[in-house]
Write a structure and sequence with these properties.
This protein has 21 helices and 17 strands. The protein is α+β, with helices and mostly antiparallel strands and 509 residues long. It has 3 domains: 197 residues, Aldehyde ferredoxin oxidoreductase, N-terminal domain (Aldehyde Ferredoxin Oxidoreductase,  A, domain 1), CATH 3.60.9.10; 194 residues, Aldehyde Ferredoxin Oxidoreductase Protein, subunit A, domain 2; 69 residues, no CATH class. The strands form 4 sheets. A 6-stranded mixed beta sheet has the order 2-1-6-3-4-5, with helices on both faces. A 6-stranded mixed beta sheet has the order 8-7-12-9-10-11. Strands 13-14-15 form a 3-stranded antiparallel beta sheet. Helix 1 packs across helix 2 and helix 12 runs parallel beside helix 14.
Length: 509
C-alpha cells in the first residue's frame, strides 16, 4: 500500500492481548484527513471503542500509542509522541505526551499507531522492527524497575539502539498515577496510563527501525523548516531560549515564584521563601554535568545531574523538571534539593508521575498538620512539612501499595473519600487529576484552563506564555492592540476566555 499522505508510515497495529494476536492494518485515510494524527486520531479511536461503562483498568479499555506526521522527520522538535486511554484517575479522556526517541523509532519501524485492547494472560511486551511486530514474553521483566527493564530488552535483542517505553512496579501494581518511562528518564507521566498498561499485563513497547519518512515536496519542507529555525533566532525569543538551554525548565521555579504562582505547602500559598534552594542556579552550578536534546530538537533543555556524596548520592541521571521540583520541593516545604533529585529518580525507576505523587504526599502532610490523620494512620511516619525521609518512605510504599501507601496510590480524590470527614477540603484536583505546578489564583487564565480541560488540572492544553512571560507584540498581534494591556495583566479575568480559546486551538494543532 502507498498511503496517499506523506509523513505517515501508513499502518497501525491492533493488538488483541486476550488472544495474543497482533493485527497489522492500513491506516485509515479519513483519520488523518479529519484528525491529523496524535491526540486527534487517538481521541477518535477511544470514542469508537469505549463508553461510559468502560472500566479504565478493565480489558475493554484501550491503550493507544500515537505519533504525528512530523514525528521522526527533520524538524524541531520531532521526537514527540503520545499515549491515551480512558484514565483511571478521572474516568474520562486521558493522554500523556513525551519526547525522546521512541516515537521516531515507531515510525521508522513502519507504524503510526498501536492500539492495545483486552488483557494478556501473562506479562508481555510489544516489539516493533521494520514492518514486523510481535508480542514477546516479559515474565523476566515483571517486577523490574524501568532502567533495568530497558537494559534487559536491549540485551534480549542484542541491539543497543532499541528504544523503549516501559512501566515499573507502580504500573504493575496499578498505582492510579503510574507512568510510562521512555529512554530511561523521559516520562509520559500524567493521568495513570502506566496503570492501564499494567492492568493489561503489558510491560511496554520496544522499537527499532530503518524505514524512512517521505515529504510531499522536500524543497518546500526544507524551506518551512528553515523558516521555523529562523524564528528561533528572533531577538524576541533570545532571552527565553538562552535560559531554557542553560537551565531547562528549572528556571521556572524562580520565574513562577516571583509572580506568586508556585504551589507551596499543598497550594496554601503561591510563594516559597526557600525557592532559591531548589532553583536553577544551584542546580546548574553544583550538580549539572551534561545536557541532552530529544530527537531533532534545536534547544536541548534536558540536563544530566550527579550527586557526588551524601545519603542521596547518585551517578549520572536525568535531572528533574520544574514540576518535580515543585511537587516534592515547595509543595511539601522541602528545600533539600538532593532529596528532591532522589525522589524524582525513584519515581522514574518505579514508574510514577512525580506531580501526582508529590501532590498526594503534600495532601497527606496537610492532613497530618490539621490532625485529620496521625502517625498511627501513616504507618508510624512523621509527616511534618519538609520531612524528606518520610517522603522517601512514602514513595516506596505507594509504588508497592503497602500500608498507608495503598490508599495514597489512588490519588487525592479517592484518598479523601476513603478518609472521610474534612479531608476533601485539602485534596487539590480537577476531575480527579492532581493540580500541576500552576496556582490559578495568581494567573487568572490558568483557572479557566483547569476548569475547561478535559484531562483535569492540566496546564498543557491552553496555558498562555504570552501573558505569563509578557510578550506585548504577540498579545497585540493575536488579540488586538486595544486588548493587549489587559491580556498581559495576569490578575485580570478580562479577555481571558478569548486567550484560553485561542491557546486551545493553537495547542490542538
Amino acid at each position: 500500500m502507498t498511503f496517499p499522505y506523506k509523513g505517515y508510515a501508513g499502518f497501525y497495529l491492533d493488538v488483541d492481548l486476550t488472544k495474543g494476536k497482533v493485527h497489522k492494518k492500513e491506516l485509515e485515510k479519513e483519520w488523518t484527513r479529519l484528525y491529523l494524527g496524535g491526540s486527534g486520531v487517538a481521541a477518535k479511536i477511544l470514542w469508537d471503542r469505549t463508553g461510559p461503562d468502560t472500566d479504565p483498568l478493565g480489558p475493554d479499555n484501550v491503550l493507544i500509542v500515537g505519533t504525528g506526521p512530523l514525528t521522526g522527520v527533520m524538524f524541531s522538535p520531532s521526537g514527540r509522541m503520545m499515549f491515551a486511554a480512558k484514565g483511571p484517575l478521572t474516568g474520562v479522556w486521558a493522554e500523556s505526551h513525551v519526547g525522546g526517541f521512541l516515537g521516531p523509532e515507531i515510525k521508522y519501524s513502519g507504524f503510526d499507531f498501536v492500539v492495545f485492547n483486552g488483557r494478556s494472560k501473562k506479562p508481555v511486551y510489544l516489539s516493533l522492527r521494520d514492518g514486523e511486530a510481535e508480542l514477546l514474553d516479559a515474565a523476566h521483566l515483571w517486577g523490574r524497575e524501568t532502567n533495568v527493564t530497558t537494559e534487559m530488552i536491549r540485551e534480549d535483542h542484542k541491539d543497543p539502539t532499541v528504544e523503549t517505553g516501559v512501566i515499573g512496579p507502580a504500573g504493575e501494581n496499578k498505582v492510579l498515577y503510574g507512568s510510562i518511562i521512555v529512554d530511561f528518564y523521559r516520562a509520559a507521566g500524567r493521568a495513570g496510563l502506566g496503570a492501564v498498561l499494567g492492568s493489561k499485563n503489558v510491560k511496554g513497547i520496544a522499537a527499532s527501525g530503518s524505514q524512512g519518512i517521505e515529504a510531499h515536496d522536500m524543497d518546500k519542507f526544507l524551506e518551512a523548516n528553515d523558516q521555523e529555525m529562523e524564528k528561533l533566532r528572533d531577538p524576541l525569543w533570545t532571552e527565553s531560549l538562552t535560559s531554557l538551554r542553560k537551565y531547562g525548565t528549572t528556571d521556572l521555579v524562580a520565574i513562577i515564584n516571583e509572580i506568586g504562582r508556585l504551589p507551596t505547602k499543598n497550594h496554601w500559598t503561591g510563594f516559597y521563601e526557600d525557592a532559591d534552594d531548589i532553583g536553577p542556579e544551584i542546580i546548574a552550578e553544583k550538580y549539572r554535568i551534561a545536557q541532552e536534546a530529544c530527537h531533532g530538537c534545536a534547544i536541548g533543555c534536558k540536563y544530566i545531574i550527579r550527586v557526588n556524596e551524601g545519603k542521596y548520592s547518585t551517578g549520572p541521571v536525568g535531572g528533574p523538571e520544574y514540576e518535580t521540583l515543585m511537587a516534592f520541593g515547595s509543595n511539601c516545604l522541602n528545600n533539600d534539593i538532593e532529596s528532591v533529585f532522589h525522589l524524582g529518580k525513584r519515581c522514574d525507576l518505579l514508574g510514577m508521575d512525580t506531580i501526582s505523587c508529590g501532590k498526594t504526599i503534600g495532601f497527606a502532610m496537610e492532613l497530618y498538620e490539621q490532625g485529620i490523620i496521625s502517625a498511627k494512620d501513616a504507618d508510624g511516619l512523621d509527616l511534618s512539612w519538609g520531612n524528606d525521609e518520610a517522603q522517601v518512605e512514602l514513595v516506596e510504599k505507594i509504588a508497592k501499595r503497602e500500608g498507608f501507601g495503598d490508599m495514597l496510590a489512588n490519588g487525592v480524590r479517592k484518598a479523601a473519600e476513603a478518609i472521610g470527614g474534612e479531608a476533601w477540603r485539602y485534596a487539590v484536583h480537577v476531575k480527579g487529576l492532581e493540580a500541576s505546578g500552576q496556582d490559578p489564583r495568581a494567573h487568572q487564565s490558568i483557572g479557566l484552563t483547569y476548569a475547561t480541560n478535559v484531562r483535569g488540572a492540566d496546564h498543557l492544553r491552553s496555558i498562555s506564555c504570552v501573558e505569563e512571560l509578557g510578550y506585548p507584540e504577540i498579545a497585540a498581534a493575536r488579540f488586538g492592540k486595544d486588548k493587549a494591556d489587559v491580556v498581559l495583566d495576569i490578575m485580570s479575568p478580562v479577555h481571558k476566555g478569548q486567550v484560553v480559546w485561542d491557546m486551545e486551538d493553537l495547542y490542538a494543532i
